[in-house]
């Protein structure tokens, strides 16, 4: 589905311009306008002949996504936008500023077919896959905003991208990979692959496929893989994350081992902590057992409450008891600050609010 200029790969752009009788250097020029200078209007591409700009404008829409709603956290550091796509569907995308990092958390699907109990996106069901251009456009959107605000290096407005917004990236594999390649293109947006994280609920064939991808230089892809685990026993994970009935923990960890063996990259594990559900020292201990021998890091995220799930985030004491086990077992972990909770930064939550109003 071709919706905008961002849906074209470089070879596709080359082919189009060649068909129009343009000289060979044009494709590179247009590409740089799109991904280096972040143009969002053909008219801005002043080094192109006027006739070509008009022809491009007539054939290929180049529009920034329409922002339907914005929420900014009280400290001003996190911003969440609800974006409208060409067909009227909506996705959420989030910008987070840390000390030296400016991270876009972007979506890969409208909704999600997996249906994790605690997730607002999953609760709302699945609508459709995003195209590669729609995925990339979310990063460009924030890059433009940051550049316009100033105080950021002009050639590096965003420092990181995490594919952790709405949707399951490995169920939209081709478009997601194309977007990763586009964002890390050394002659385009130039984000280092190590600055891109892909978060998956654990689609085993997708993980194996990802492990086999190569970089333009020849070696394996250098992106970080994050696995949303949330439970270390099949009995509990089957309840929280329904896809576990298809790809159980043994199969998932075997795929992680293969991924680490092939890529040499550390894997991250996400664990949404839910009071009385998966925050027990016994689960922490089962998690430590599972992680033996794997180069891994655990991100603990206290639950962001959602309307259709009555779970709560654990108390500080419960979190301390959980992390004490990981510490004792030598498992590296981070407890994520609950930044942005007041802007409903849990995925799918702004879209939910907007639909209710
Ligand atoms: N589908 C992918 C990526 C999108 S979800 C995946 O599941 O990994 C991104 C992260 O947000 C996941 O780790 C998910 O578990 C987490 N998340 C979803 N709902 C949440 C909530 N209510 N509170 C905290 N984290 C949540
Ligand atoms: Fe989908 Fe991820 Fe939400 Fe689960 S947590 S429903 S996989 S978006």
Q: What would you say this structure looks like, in words?
A:
The protein folds into 2 domains: 55 residues, DNA polymerase, domain 1, CATH 1.10.150.530; 278 residues, Aldolase class I (TIM Barrel), CATH 3.20.20. Helix content is 36%, strand content 18%. It contains 12 helices and 12 strands. It is elongated and about 70 Å long. The two termini are 31 Å apart. S-adenosyl-L-homocysteine binds next to strand 8 and strand 10. Iron/sulfur cluster binds next to helix 4.
Per DSSP E runs of 2 or more residues, the count of β-strands stands at 12
CATH superfamily of the largest domain: Aldolase class I
Mean pLDDT: 92
- Please report the distance between the alpha carbons of the first and last residues: 31 Å
What small molecules does this complex bind?
S-adenosyl-L-homocysteine, iron/sulfur cluster
The secondary-structure class comes to: alpha/beta
Biggest beta sheet summary? 10 strands, mixed
| Uncertain residue segments | none
CATH fold title of the largest domain: TIM Barrel
Strand content: 15-25%
CATH A-level architecture of the largest domain:
Alpha-Beta Barrel
Summed up, the helix count is 12
The level of helicity is: 25-40%
